[in-house]
Amino acid sequence: MADRGRTRGRRGGGGGASRANRSAPARRPEAARRRTGDAETTRARLRRGLAAKRASGAAKVLGMSTTRRAAVVAIVVCALAFTIAVPLRTYLSQRTEVREQQAQQAQLQQEVAQLQGRKAELSDPAQIEAEARRRLRYVKPGETPYIVQLPEDKAPDAAPPAGQQQVAGSSWYENLWSQVSGG
């Protein structure tokens, strides 16, 4: 019969309910209020607790503290940076070199275009004759050439100024002695 009372008490039946069961309905509304008001907080706590358990589980699996894990991560990041640095530097230097080569190629193409234009000009016999007369001072048979020299066209004498005359064929120390002695 005692078993019957307990089962009825658990089911919410009346007969063998204890005093604690009677006071429970009075507390339920208050507990329900706490659950609904703090539902977000409770969920957040549970999530944090699960994350902490996972993190501590990872630390236990690896057998390392947080500081050691941070050091390992830093070493891995540095290794990756050094691994990427050399190819990146090579890529940037080659890109600069390609730009320089392209600029040089454009300049050479302009020069080729100019030379092809000059070649087209020189394919004319009249142009060749004019160049020979101007540069080489050629004249046709029977023509009398005249050369007019203006005073500005004359070259100055090749003699150095009086204070800087050097004796030809003498050694450097003789030149030095002659400059020191004034003779």
Automatic annotation (TrEMBL):
Residues 27-43 have a biased composition (Basic and acidic residues). The chain crosses the membrane at residues 70-92. Keywords: Coiled coil, Membrane, Transmembrane, Transmembrane helix. Residues 1-43 are annotated as: Disordered. Pfam families: DivIC. InterPro entries: FtsL/DivIC. Residues 91-118 form a coiled coil. This is Septum formation initiator. It comes from Amycolatopsis mediterranei (strain S699) (Nocardia mediterranei). The lineage of its organism: Bacteria, Bacillati, Actinomycetota, Actinomycetes, Pseudonocardiales.
